[in-house]
Write a structure and sequence with these properties.
metal-binding; mainly alpha; zinc ion binding; ubiquitin-protein transferase activity; zinc-finger
Length: about 300
């Protein structure tokens, strides 16, 4: 076994420290650079950590090779001298772990921020889409309501026009009813006058027939002579003939102006002429007396 002198041991010691210190310095500089120059956002720190570990491992292998080349028989001393290096390496790894945790936490915060921003953007888009759909629905409902209101307004206008037409029809019917009432009263007065004249003539005939037992002409002449106090037979016959002529003329006036066979029983409106029978009224559109157009007719029953 070969022994080393104190000078060789000192050189070996210095060589070991000279090999260790640059490694620590290099490692410290690398950590400082990593601290002052953090990884860019949205990038993974795992490759950088692996690169750092590879660098440290390579340096360690170089140190081991150097130590072996200097002295392979003083392994215990070499192990003893590497203890400060191992402590520094553990400190470096602890620092790198804290730095890595800070970077991961920062990236997690950035990811959460991005997710929240994206969620807010999606929420705003959904809200805008919902508002747009609600607006479209309201416009559609408003359009339908406007169409229905317009249709109802048109129906109301039509009903108002119909009411106006019905009111005019009612007014015309009221006027026509008043005309018919006046005509009925006039016809009733004429009928009463004719009835009284007929009763008077029958009374005169009965009084004159009481003297000679049924000679109508002589009785009428005697009755006329006794009533008038005149013996002029010509005057008596003239009165009888005039009465008969008046009755015949009145009867002819009451006959239909178209056929002349039936009695007139229909009044033409609006001229109010009693001049047609029930058969001829459907064949004429104008009054045969005044030639005015026929609007309506009124049937009259004369007793």
């Amino acid at each position: 076994m070969m022994m080393m002198n104190p000078m060789d041991a000192s050189m070996n010691l210095y060589n070991n420290y000279s090999l260790v210190f640059p490694l620590l310095e290099t490692t410290t500089v690398t950590a400082s650079e990593t601290l002052h120059h953090p990884a860019p956002p949205y990038s993974s720190l795992i490759p950088d950590s692996f690169a750092t570990l590879k660098t440290i491992t390579a340096m360690k292998s170089d140190v081991s090779t150097t130590n072996v080349s200097v002295s392979r028989k003083r392994s215990i001393d070499s192990v003893d001298y590497r203890l400060p290096y191992n402590k520094n390496r553990a400190t470096d790894f602890s620092f790198l772990g804290e730095h890595l945790f800070i970077q991961i936490h920062q990236q997690q915060l950035e990811i959460d921020n991005l997710v929240s921003q994206h969620m807010e953007k999606v929420r705003m888009e959904l809200e805008e889409k919902r508002k747009r759909q609600v607006r479209m629905l309201m416009e559609s409902i408003e359009l339908r309501v406007m169409k229905r209101l317009k249709s109802k307004e048109e129906d109301i206008e039509t009903i108002e026009k119909l009411n106006i037409a019905l009111e005019e029809k009612v007014n015309s019917l009221c006027i026509e009813n008043q005309i018919w009432r006046d005509l009925a009263q006039t016809n009733e007065a004429n009928a009463n006058a004719l009835r009284s004249n007929l009763m008077q003539a029958l009374t005169n005939v009965k009084e004159s027939a009481g003297e000679d037992g049924g000679a109508t002409v002589g009785a009428a002449a005697n009755d006329a002579e006794s009533c008038c106090g005149s013996n002029d037979e010509n005057e008596v016959w003239r009165m009888i003939a005039g009465g008969a002529h008046d009755k015949e003329e009145e009867r002819s006036e009451r006959m239909c102006r178209k056929c002349g066979k039936e009695e007139s029983c229909v009044v033409i409106l609006p001229c109010r002429h009693l001049c047609l029978c029930t058969v001829c009224v459907s064949t004429l559109q104008i009054c045969p007396i005044c030639n005015s157009f026929k609007n309506a007719t009124l049937h009259v029953n004369l007793i």
